[in-house]
Write a structure and sequence with these properties.
- The structure holds 2 protein chains of 2 kinds.
- Chain A is 25% helix and 27% strand.
- Chain A is built from 8 helices and 8 strands.
- In chain A, strand 2 and strand 3 form a beta hairpin.
- Chain B is an alpha+beta fold.
- Helices cover 26% and strands 26% of the residues of chain B.
- The longest helix of chain B has 13 residues.
- The two termini of chain B are 19 Å apart.
- The chains are: A alpha+beta, B alpha+beta.
- Chain B: InterPro entries: OBAP-like.
- Chain B: It holds the Pfam family DUF1264.
- Chain B: It comes from Rhynchospora pubera.
Chain lengths: 237, 246
């Protein structure tokens, strides 16, 4: 079943040639992919731009643990083979979040609401198993950066990276997007909400500097002078 | 608030003398949960990464900061590739960024302001810096000629090389090695990589001499002509809202 959101735009370019595909089948078999093999989990959630809540994106996270307290995720726009890699998310436990410098904290968002609200889910995993992990995720903070603005129809990853935020209270998620995801994945956010009543957020409450310090963030590009070469070795590649 | 060319303030996370990242070892129950989920979920997009490339990149705001990168490459079509970039090839490698690679045909369709953010791959490949570990040369050669014509856009989200134990700050643009003074990769970095994979970058260079030198678009590798690079700033802004926030 094609679980593709309605805003999908074709990526420009020719279909993959046979020779190319054959080579990649070979390299895919011969080479090692350990960092990729560490990815064990698919989570679906919603992000919006830290300067614009009205622009919302269905985000498929493919996550691996670096250790118990830190996860790193590749974000795609769908769970399908032809999904576009649109961003990255890092997830850390509360204790690590609290060690971040104060000017770093606003780039991170809390997960409590989207987990308790039922909006963040693991497609294909029974609720009872899902909730074991969500109990932990509920208390974490995430940092999301997107590189490909698929929601505005960009055919390629144009522009500069965007800091994204996550849902923090009812009324933020666009109804149509919500219904569309519920239908395509056969989930009910309301039902999940009921099942997740006993989950709790960060022990110290949601930090006031998280979630863009309650305001918003934008990114800008700046040209810089390249520092002059220091003593370069005489032999180089 | 944060800039890709600014070192983060002193905190336990930014010292770099301890293992990156901080945190407790993964518990057995997490591993079991992961394995369980992994069996029930298909993880399709991730399976599309079929190439491992080891190469080098330079920070666009400071070319003297150079890193060895491990790209896990997925193909969207003949003209577009997308890569998850890590700082090593081990299981617990840090995910440090994303690179997109496109054909010259597509690069030409980009607006000029956009083209400046992309880098060429010709030198990186012909010089032998770009390698597919474990793949016999004979196998990789035909595709290398195609790759040599492509352009890349690489955003780094975790500056591990400056000691960040967690991903701090604004994302940073990266550039590719170039055959001009400041664009060359430090020999010690290359040597370390070569020793690890038991290869010789120099030998690879010799074997790639016959790869056609593509014509590089004038807007790529911006710093080479303009002596200017790029940094990204994250600044507070008023969020357009449709409901109260946070």
């Amino acid at each position: 079943m094609n679980k593709m959101a309605t805003s999908h735009v074709n990526v420009p370019g020719e279909p993959t040639e046979t020779g190319t595909a054959l080579l990649e089948t070979a390299t895919g078999t011969i080479q090692g992919f350990q960092p990729i093999n560490n990815i064990h989990q698919h989570l679906c959630a919603f992000h919006f731009y830290a300067h614009d809540m009205t622009r919302q994106v269905e985000a498929h996270h493919f996550c691996g643990h670096l250790n118990e307290d830190v996860r790193q995720c590749l974000i795609y726009d769908s769970p399908n083979k032809d999904a576009r890699l649109i961003g990255i998310e890092y997830i850390v436990v509360e204790s690590l979040f609290l060690t971040l410098p104060d000017d770093e904290k606003p780039l991170w968002h809390s997960h409590e609401f989207e987990v308790k609200g039922g909006y963040l889910f693991m497609p294909g995993v029974p609720g009872i198993v899902e909730r074991q992990d969500l109990k932990q995720v509920c208390k974490t903070y995430g940092k999301v950066i997107h590189f490909w603005q698929v929601d505005r129809g960009d055919p390629l990853p144009l522009g500069i990276p965007q800091i994204m935020m996550a849902l923090t209270r009812p009324g933020q998620l666009d109804e149509n997007i919500a219904k569309d995801v519920e239908k395509r994945f056969g989930v009910s956010f309301e039902e999940q909400r009921e099942q997740r009543k006993d989950l709790s957020g960060p022990d110290h409450g949601i930090h006031p500097l998280a979630n863009a310090a309650g305001r918003g963030l934008k990114t800008e590009l700046r040209e810089v002078d390249i520092p002059p070469a220091t003593s370069m070795p005489r032999v180089f590649v | 608030m944060a800039s890709s060319d600014e070192k983060p303030g002193p905190t336990p996370v930014a010292t770099g003398d301890k293992p990156t990242p901080p945190g407790e070892p993964t518990t057995l129950s997490s591993k079991i949960l992961d394995k369980g989920a992994g069996m029930m979920q298909s993880l399709e997009p991730v399976k599309e990464m079929k190439q491992h490339v080891c190469t080098f990149a330079l920070y666009a705001h400071d070319l003297s900061r150079q890193i060895e990168t491990h790209h896990y490459v997925g193909r969207l079509n003949q003209d577009v590739l997308q890569c998850a970039v890590y700082d090593s090839d081990i299981r617990k490698a840090n995910l440090i960024g994303v690179e997109y690679i496109i054909s010259p045909k597509l690069y030409e369709t980009l607006p000029e302001e956009e083209q400046k953010l992309w880098h060429s791959h010709a030198y990186e490949i012909k010089s032998g810096l770009w390698v597919n570990p474990g793949v016999p040369q004979m196998l990789e050669k035909p595709e290398l000629e195609n790759m040599a014509c492509t352009y890349g856009k690489f955003w780094c989200t975790w500056q591990v090389d400056r000691g960040d134990r967690l991903p701090l700050g604004a994302p940073a643009l990266m550039f590719s090695p170039q055959p001009v003074n400041r664009g060359r990769v430090r020999p010690d970095l290359v040597q370390r990589r070569d020793e690890k994979y038991k290869i010789s970058t120099e030998e690879l260079r010799e074997s790639r001499v016959d790869i056609q030198e593509p014509e590089i678009h004038p807007n790529a590798d911006y710093w080479v002509k303009h002596n200017k690079g790029f940094a990204v700033d994250v600044k507070p802004a008023d969020m357009k809202r449709l409901a109260p926030f946070p």
